[in-house]
Fold:
Amino acid sequence: MRILLVEDEKGLADALVQIFTKNKYLADACYDGVSGLDNALTDIYDVIILDIMLPGMNGLDVLRNIRENKITTPVILLTAKDEISDKVAGLDHGADDYITKPFSTDELLARIRCISRRNANVVCENVLHFSDITLNLSTYEMFCGEKSFKLGVKEFSIMELLMKNGSIIISKETLIEKVWGYESDAEYNNVEVYISFLRKKLSHINAHTTIKTVRGVGYSLEE
Structure:
C-alpha cells in the first residue's frame, strides 16, 4: 500500500512516514497544499492523509480538487480543527474519515487498515488471497499450502498490487509509479527483473497461480 501524507508540521510528517515504513507501507510526504494536490492527482496512492490547515492551499480545497478530478482514493483528514461543523464540512467535501489532533498512531493505523479492507480481495486485515496463494501483509511471506517464501520489499509491493487486482491487467507504468515512486528513474526492465523473481518463487512453492504477461500492456495473475 502506498500512502500520501500532506502535513505542514514537518517533524510530525517525518515521524509518521517512519511509522508507516515500520508498518510496511510505502509513504510520501508533502508539506503544503499545492505539492500535495500535485502528488494526489497522479492517482498512484491507495490512501491520502490530509491536514486541513496547510500553506499554499488549504486541505478542503485540495480535497475538492481531488474529487473534481474523479480521483476516488480514500482520504483521511487529520487536523486540529475539532468542531462538529469542521467534520461535517470535511465529510461533505468527500473525505472518507476524520481524525483530530492530538491523535493515537494506533488509531490512525487502524483507520488505514479499515479503509484498505474495502477491497473485495482482502479477507482480513493482514492477509490477501488469490486462487491457491496467500500473502501475509505483516511478514511479507507468500504461501501455497504448507510451502512459503519470504519476499523482498519490492517483490512484496508488486505481488500485493497484483493480488489486489486479480485478473485485472496492471501496466508497467503503474507498477513503476506504485512501487518505485512517481519521480523514480526506474525502467521497464526493472519491473521485468522483479516479475522474473516472483515467478521463480511461485514455482518454488508449487503454486498453480502464475503471472501472465500481456505483451505491450502489463501483467495480471492467472489461475
Summary: Confidence is low (pLDDT under 50) at residues 119-124. Residues 58 and 186 are 33 Å apart (CA to CA).
